[in-house]
Amino acid sequence: MKDILNAHLTELVNNVNDGDTSPLEAWFEMKQMLDKVKWSMGLIEDAAINEREAIGADDYKVDGFRIEVVQGRKMYSFKHIGKWKELEVHRKQVEQAAKVAADTGNMVVDPYGEEIEPAELSFGKSYLKATAIR
User: How many CB atoms lie within 10 A of CB 97?
Assistant: First the structure.
């Protein structure tokens, strides 16, 4: 199956490079394939994690790749702490003022009379998005 998939992807790329296939059509076909793969992987992920944990070997490899279970990250919630809530409200006010300063180029002063520096502005990479037409 891997060989068939690799061959198809290579053919799509070559067809785009040769001008035989629209880059947008090839991208969309690949996106559909990727979405289906991700969905399918989600269906078996828990079983795969259980199998890997049951194997227990530290150095389990498949096709030259080490497969390991990575534990989920530790997360803290501070939303129940009153002082944190107060500071969070203030942080949001400062962020909003800094955005206004960056977007308008005007100096912004907070309620305490302090000038708020403009936020640093950057833009992410452009990307394609596919949305179903209803």
Answer: 20
